[in-house]
Amino acid sequence: MRRVAPLGLRTRLIAAFLLVAAISAVTTATLTYQQARTAVLKQSQDTAVSTLRDQVETVPLDLPLDQAQLQRIVTDLGKKGKPNPWNVFGEYGTLRASSTSAPTSTVVSEELRRQVTAHPHAAFQRVTDPAGRPYLAVGMAAVWLPHDVREPTGLVLFATMPLTTEGNTVEAMVEAAKRGAVPGLAIAVVPALLAARSVLRPVRDMRRAAQSMGRGRLDTRIEVRGSDELAGLARTFNETAGALEQSVSELREAEARARRFAADVSHELRTPLAGMLAVTEVLDEEAERLDPDTAAALRLVSAETGKLAVLVEDLMEISRFDARAAELNLDDVDVAEAVHKTLERRHWLDERVVTDLPSQVRARLDPRRFDVVLANLVGNALRHGGAPVRVGVRAEVRPGGPRLLIEVADSGPGIAPEVLPHIFDRFFKADAARTRSAGSGLGLAITLENVRLHGGTLSAANGGAGGAVFTLDMPLEADA
């Protein structure tokens, strides 16, 4: 099922604003309609009840009534309907009469008759006839007043009045409310847009500021407007950005000092180390002529001097990467031949290293740096993995261009899962017991930097059959 893209914040704000406006308009219109309808109908029924009461009280009665007299009464009353024309029905004992052709009305209910009996002054109901038309039915018992005492006469009169006019008035009010709601909602879009703009402006400013900081401009700040929650958020962002800028500045200064120190120390150590290496080489030649204890001490000094020389060279190399001073000297290279030369220089052309080197794979790369990369990977596999080490080369065509893939796999126990994330970290050694091994702890870090300089990637994993596998993936045509 295709997912629907979420609505933007502006759309949601405007929708929420219009929803509130619509609910308010509907609620107001409903309450207004109810109040107006009640007022219109109440005015009509009050007028009708009052008119009928006044007219009934003035009707001359000659009791007991006969049919002719009852008909005359209802006919006279039927002509005096107010506020609308009405039909009058009279009931006196078993006698029935009306101002219409029908002797009784279909809108006069038994409930209304019971109310008239219980409340002789007057009773009314709003009802609908079988056709669904609204009517007001009013019932009233005629009384006579001897000596100011109300006594029933037995005559009950009912007036039925159509409420068509009042219904039309109410319908017109509803239609007016509907017509007014649409322009009202359209007008409400304007304040909705203004409200959304006032809310989204600081959000957009904050997004741009965050993007700017993400690009490295830590001096980015947001203009604070007003004193609401968004202004408070902007102030907090500025304070956080200021603290971050200060922290990053201090870290950069500390890192620069550390790099400068490492570069300076490495540079200063190269000259005395060169002399020490020359002397140890001469002493190594004379070791066989010395007593065993002196010879062992001499060989130890020579070995440690060699380790120190390797460490200094690695520090010099890594400091050039940190200072972004490392450069590529690209050349068109036969990859199989370059791999063979690297293994030959280190005397690894024996059963310890197995190669799969297809011919006619050429790449644009820096031969010296490629030699460092391959030597570090194979040497690391031989020292910390196990022979035989397999070196495979292949080329792949991908949408982004042709790629060179080199795999170096050993036959050792593999890399522990907790070690894998740190395998390319500087000075990282998986085994604390190997802190005095021949490696400087910078070999894989330098290898990774050289691969990145070529625009490639280097990954480490464990093979399916055991052993560690390092995969180099870089373009065949590197950018100069």
Automatic annotation (TrEMBL):
Residues 264-478 form the Histidine kinase domain. This is histidine kinase. Residues 197-249 form the HAMP domain. The keyword Transcription regulation does not apply. It is an enzyme of class 2 (transferase). One of its GO terms (cellular component) is plasma membrane. It comes from Streptomyces vinaceus. CDD domains: HAMP, HATPase, HisKA. It is found in: Cell membrane. Keywords: Kinase, Membrane, Phosphoprotein, Transferase, Transmembrane, Transmembrane helix, Two-component regulatory system. The keyword Amino-acid biosynthesis does not apply. Its EC number is 2.7.13.3. It catalyses: ATP + protein L-histidine = ADP + protein N-phospho-L-histidine. SMART domains: HAMP (SM00304), HATPase_c (SM00387), HisKA (SM00388). Its main location: membrane. One of its GO terms (molecular function) is phosphorelay sensor kinase activity.
